[in-house]
Amino acid sequence: MRILLVEDETQIASFVLEGLQQHGLTVEWVRDGAEALPRIVVGKYDVLILDILLPGASGLEVLAEIRQQGHRIPVLMLTALASPPERVVGLDAGADDYLGKPFLLEELIARVKALGRRSAPLETMLTLADLSLNLLTREVSRGERRIEVTTREFTLLEFLIRCDGRTVSRSAILREAWKYNFEPTTNVVDVFIKRLRQKIDGGSDVKLLHTIRHLGYALRIES
Amino acid sequence: MKRLFQPSLRSVLTLQAGLVIFLAVFICAGGLFLFSVQEEHEDLDASLLHQSKIIGRIIMDERSHDGTMILLKTLLASERDHRMAEIRRAKGQITRLATHSQVPILLDAGLPLPAQPYFLTKTINGHSRRILYSSFGDNLIAVAAQPESMRENIQNVLVVYSILTVILLVIILSGGRWLANAALAPIVEMADDAARIQNFDSAQRLSINQVDAELRRLANVLNDMLDRLHSSFSLIRRFTADAAHEIKTPLTIIQGHLESTLRSEGFPPQQETTLLLTLREVERLNRLIEGLLLLSRSDANRLELQCEPVDWSELTGELLHDADILCAPLNLQLSTDIDPGIFISADRPHLRQVLLNLLDNACKYNRPGGSIRMELHSENGRARFTIGNTGPAIPDATHLFERFQRGDTSRTRGQQDGLGLGLSICREILHAHGGEIALEKSANDWTQFTVTLFKQTE
Fold it and tell me: What interface predicted TM-score (ipTM) does this complex get?
């Protein structure tokens, strides 16, 4: 998978580059928006990670230009401006996803991979070990055992499976399951996960839903 | 003290103009009247003196008594102020002459001859008379007039004057009102224009083309003020964007480094706790910045709401799932009374944030085994949401909705890392919706908040 990162802050760019490369992704990095545009036209990128406040053309301008020229490349906006109205502006301009700074690298990777898969044919089933999610009937089962889940739990399970076992932060879970860009100070996520874990891992020897201390949660087969 | 009656500028101007003009007219008329009376007096005295001289000459040149009498009577009749005259001849014979029936007695035999002519005002038979005594040789002549009869004329004039003044006053008051209206019209128009420029962000300004010089100055001053407001609003908007970028960039870098350190192999586990605590604080700082940005946007009137019809009853129903989750660890009892189908116009994510925040507080400041009650009702075109919880009362509620207020720190029970911005954010969001939040009660193991919003009009 080939990725173009447009980010003016060297330090952020360097750890993003490092992280993405460690996960076997090919990343190229440019500093400003003006430079990004001709690259996209020529290069065959699968995903574009775009900061908004950039020297030269702003991220939103670059995005508008890309869409105007008819490029359908998936775009992830990576920005400090992450309030709900700003998200709406970004998504209206043609962004496919939006990640506010600061972010967990794992989450960025998960989202980038999810975006890269978009071009792939539509899946109907998602599986991890003997856990399977039917995206059409919205049924969840573990082996032969059917699991009753709420809409919110299903949304979160789908998100966690798509993250390929990567750690997902509490704020990411809030955003995905609650569509909510604000962190309550209580342990709503922890209690929610605890319930979900009982449903998923309750009757099985192989535990799938893991707590990654202080960072968040991950759905994966631990060796 | 509150003034009960506040007259409009227009009425005040009209009344003041009326009063000034009325006073001017009154003073002029009074002065004119006094002047005329004085003039009349002097004229009368001159006339009396003149007549007495003629009478004296006629007597001195007397040829025949009857002829003289006719001449004198004709002379007296030429004036209309009831002239009369009495003549005492040198021999002591007194002749009385009058133009009307009453014959006054002006002089008698004993009156000495005056060296100089002199005037006297005397009331005879209830009428005031002006009398001139003078001597011609040994003859004493008294000529008198009754000025009242003339003063009637003046009084008539005065009555006409008064009537005219009243008519004038009516004209002044109605004309003054019209003038005041005309003079104030541009100001009223300017006020309407200014009211229309609600969004200080727009480049819209007051028109100065069709305005008089005095008002143009006012318009210019207002426009300058709008310019300054405009630039300060732009500054605040830029500031929030820049601040978000400037603060979050280092946070992102710190978090990135912490994360990669935590994940690197061979990392000493003893240092893990320190790093995890640091990571936690970075997250906290980030939430704090988000909250401050929201408040600064709200201060600048820049809290952009994407309002749509929202079924508040349904949204509250959704909240119950979260409430279930939040209540479980403290073993709280949740009860509700939610009227169905209450629609409001609101920004859904923001409203959800308010509700979740209140629910979060109701759990956080509760006591184990306590309870929470949520109600949603509609009354008088408003929707009213209340959420109450058991637990200790808020000790000092006066500044509860102000920034960084958390009531008493003991309420936070140590492990809660509330930011002290939650309630002020709730209030700003609700104000932006035209709604209200209030602490209804906080005593005796029960704290209750009320949120009021206008219902969606059909």
Answer: 0.71
Q: What angle do CA B90, B94, B99 make, to 5 degrees?
A: 130
Amino acid at B141: I
Q: Is the pLDDT of residue B335 over 90?
A: yes
Q: Considering only CA atoms, which of A70, A23, A67, A73 is closest in space to residue A49?
A: A73
Least CA distance to A53: which residue of chain B? B245
Which positions ≥6 away from A191 have C-beta within 8 Å? Answer: B325, B326, B328, B329
**Predicted confidence band of residue B202 (pLDDT cuts 50, 70, 90):** low
Burial of A165 (0-12, 13-18, 19+ CB in 10 A): middle
Please check whether residue B170 touches A, CB under 8 A. Answer: no
Sign of the dihedral defined by the CA atoms of residues B319, B293, A86, B254, in that order:
negative
The Cα of B280 is separated from the nearest Cα of chain A by a number of Å equal to 7
| DSSP letter for each residue of chain A | -EEEEE-S-HHHHHHHHHHHHHTT-EEEEESSHHHHHHHHHHS--SEEEEESS-SSS-HHHHHHHHHHTT----EEEEES--SHHHHHHHHHTT-SEEEESS--HHHHHHHHHHHHGGGSPPPSEEEETTEEEETTTTEEEETTEEE---HHHHHHHHHHHHTTT--B-HHHHHHHHH---S--SS-HHHHHHHHHHHHHHTT-SS--EEEETTTEEEE----
Strands B382-389 and B446-454: antiparallel
Question: Residue A75's closest CA among A51, A105, A53, A56?
Answer: A51
The residue written with tokens 């009892």 in the block is: B333
Give the CA distances from residue B331 to residues A47, A219, B173, B328, B372, in Å, rounded to whole numbers and listed in that order.
47, 28, 78, 5, 11
Write the pLDDT tens digit of every residue in B80-97.
777 888 888 888 788 888
What integer is the mean pLDDT of B36-44?
85
Q: Which of 242-271 (B) contact A at CB < 8 A?
A: 244-245, 247-249, 251-257, 259-260, 262
* Inter-chain residue contact A214 with B419, CB threshold 8 Å: no
| A vs B: CB pairs below 8 A | 113
Side-chain-side CA neighbours of residue B166 (13 Å): 5
Cis peptide before A184 (omega within 30 of 0): no
pTM, to two decimals = 0.58
pLDDT in tens, A114-148: 888 765 556 788 888 889 999 888 899 998 889 99
φ and ψ at residue A46, rounded to 5 degrees: -90, -35
- Contact criterion met (CB < 8 Å) for B360 and A185: yes
The percent of residues above 90 in pLDDT, for chain B, comes to: 14
B356 in A contact zone (CB under 8 Å): yes
Backbone phi and psi for residue B188, each to the nearest 5 degrees, phi listed first: -60, -45
From chain A, the residues in CB contact with B353 under 8 A are 180, 182
